[in-house]
Design goal:
By secondary structure, the chain is α+β, with helices and mostly antiparallel strands. It contains 5 helices and 16 strands. It has 2 domains: 149 residues, Trna Endonuclease, Chain: A, domain 1 (3-Layer(aba) Sandwich); 102 residues, no CATH class.
């Protein structure tokens, strides 16, 4: 990251954070200027506006992508710009934070201080970054499926298209029979071993297949099934943390991800 990207990032963050409050970016970068009561034009890194009723509040934001902490002299300069241009609020965003006198002077003069930087090792301490979960997957499978008439026959049928017509006229879906069977196995925790089942029908009961003329009188149904278990280790990781943002006086902290999404976390 360089100073220009830093300014663009600050602009994007404030734009995202202010959406619900209808905060707008007035301008940013070298062409972002405001003329004060003195008649002097001041360059400001980012200017935002915020409408509340009939009033519009403007904020001047200075971005300091410097390899040193910001002292009171830099704070004083922004205060002068704020007062000359009648900005309602002033904020300094710094990569390395602020000196003690800079922070005290800013707090006294109601200047917001924000630290925006790449994460350090201590930022990740005591923070859950991944979860390992063992997931057991149950895989039901029918091993054999035979209708018994006067003799046992093997008939290829599509479960969803087939049903039994009972003596009282009721229809029993083969799909429901299979589902009930596997529910029984799951409740009994009968896993990883074949289980045989036979269902005896009252006469006359007929096997029917939709959209065909097939009608087969059956005495019973014999089938065998198994519920196989498969265990998978699933690792859920937090996205790579791109930036840490701390609003010093507001006691707010945000984690920022590479896709520009943000999450507020506990301030430490």
């Amino acid at each position: 990251m360089d100073w220009k990207t830093y300014e663009e990032t600050v602009k994007s963050i404030y734009e995202a954070l202010g959406k619900k409050q209808r905060v707008k970016i007035v301008c940013y970068g070298h062409s972002c200027k405001s003329t004060g009561k003195s008649g002097v034009s001041h360059q400001v890194d980012v200017i935002t506006s915020h409408d509340v009723g009939i009033h519009t509040y403007k904020t001047a934001i200075e971005c300091k992508y410097w390899n040193e902490k910001i002292d009171k002299d830099k704070v004083m300069k922004l205060i002068e710009i704020r007062d000359d241009c009648n900005f309602d609020k002033a904020v300094i965003v710094s990569k390395l934070g602020f000196t003690e006198d800079g922070a005290k002077y800013a707090e006294y003069h109601n200047v917001g201080l924000v630290e925006l930087r790449e994460p350090l090792d201590q930022d990740l301490q005591n923070r859950l970054t991944s979860i390992n979960i063992n997931i057991q997957v149950l895989i039901p499978e029918i091993l054999s499926f035979n209708n018994v008439c006067d003799e046992e026959i093997k008939l290829e049928v599509k479960i969803d298209d087939s049903y039994y017509l009972m003596p009282d006229g009721d229809q029993i879906e083969i799909r429901d029979i299979i589902n009930d069977f596997f529910q029984e196995l799951e409740q009994a925790k009968q896993f990883d071993q074949p289980v045989f089942k036979e269902i005896l029908f009252s006469n006359p009961t007929y096997l029917k297949i939709r959209n065909t003329q097939l009608e087969l009188k059956v005495n019973s149904l014999k089938f065998q099934g198994i519920i196989k278990t498969h265990t998978e280790l699933v690792e859920i990781r937090e996205n790579y943390i791109w930036l840490i943002m701390k609003s010093i006086f507001e006691k707010k902290m945000f984690i920022i991800y590479p896709d520009s999404t943000m999450r507020e976390v506990a301030y430490e």
